[in-house]
Amino acid sequence: MQLIKPDTNFDFINKRKLAMIVSAVLILIGLASLVVKGGPNYGIDFAGGTLVQVKFTSDTDAAQIKQALDGLDLGNPVVQRFGDGRDEFLIRVEKSSGELQGLSAQMLQALEEKYEQGNVEIRRVEMVGPQVGKDLRSKGLKAIFYAMLGILVYISWRFEFRFAVGAIIALVHDVLITLGMFSLFGKEIDLPIIAAFLAIIGYSLNDTIIVYDRIRENLGKHHKESFPFIVNRSVNETLSRTLLTSGTTLLVVLALFVLGGGVIHNFAFAMLVGVLVGTYSSIFVASPVLIFWEERKAAKAS
User: In what order do the strands lie in the sheet with 78-81?
Assistant: First the structure.
């Protein structure tokens, strides 16, 4: 099955400067958001503390819940709506269980005084100590770093070093934009999101490898043509496969995002952004880096 005709010849390569500007703007917006907000919004897994999921039988809002908890020594709790409904909330407290014994019972009692007994249900309690959270955060970052390093070695061995550099730049581009989107939309980063980042790296790399394989094949078949022509031809030849793969993946991820509920909402959001950006970077980032490398090499030789 082909969505794109075999003889299609879109001029992707001549749009690389425009694509570079778009990518730079998206990354800068994301980085600016991270700076303004003081870094990523770490979830309970990484920041440490206590997370309580509460369900109400009557309508309420975050301000009323915080007011009901004022009598407890919780510091500055964060209250946010959970999922698509209006009756469930997440309450995050920076203190861990070691500092607050029977926290859920205290919260339940305080909330029942305001909303009456039987109208409040504690559905989930998660507690992570600050040292454990710091350790998990460090291991998550190491997992992403070692994945990048392994990719660099693998592509250098299978293709050439210039191909590996292009792939790594594209992957860093994908992760930075996804991270920026999380900051812009105020979403938390926890262990499932690290798993999503690693999945994005794998997905984007797969797309890039397909294009690189066709470039290497066309370098032998069309050795008399210019390198930009070969790259552009290779991208066009793999375009139908790229759109089919990305399209079907997006349908699944979109279904998870819309229908999956609050538990996997952030994970699905990361995958949704990652698949879109990963497909874009395979065409407009990874391949143009090779052209830049060749042009720089030719300039040095001359």
Answer: 78-81, 88-93, 49-56, 120-128
User: For residue 95, what pLDDT band results from cuts at 50, 70 and 90?
Assistant: low
- Residues with Cβ within 8 Å of 26's Cβ and at least 6 positions away in sequence, in order, are 177, 180
Judged by average pLDDT, the poorest of 106-120, 182-196, 221-235, 239-253 is 106-120
Check if the beta carbon of residue 267 is closer than 8 Å to that of residue 196: yes
Residue of 200, 149, 211, 136 whose CA lies nearest to 171? 200
The CATH number assigned to the domain holding 57 equals: 3.30.70.3400
Count up the domains in the chain and report the number: 2
**In one letter, which amino acid is 294?**
E
What phi, psi does 160 have (nearest 5°)? -140, 170
Question: pLDDT value at position 276?
Answer: 93
Residue 134 CB: number of other CB atoms within 10 A?
A: 15
More confident residue, 136 or 185: 185
Residue 123 three-state SS: strand
Q: Contact, 293 vs 160, CB < 8 A?
A: no
Distance between CA atoms of residues 162 and 292, nearest Å: 10
Instruction: For residue 125, list its beta bridge partners.
Output: 52
Q: Give the model's confidence band at 32: pLDDT under 50 very low, under 70 low, under 90 confident, else very high.
A: very high
- Residue 120 and residue 53 in contact, taking contact as beta carbons nearer than 8 Å: no
Element (H, E) at 148: helix 130-158
Output the pTM of the full model. 0.79
What's the domain range around 209?
13-42+132-301
CB of 148 within 8 A of CB of 170? Answer: no
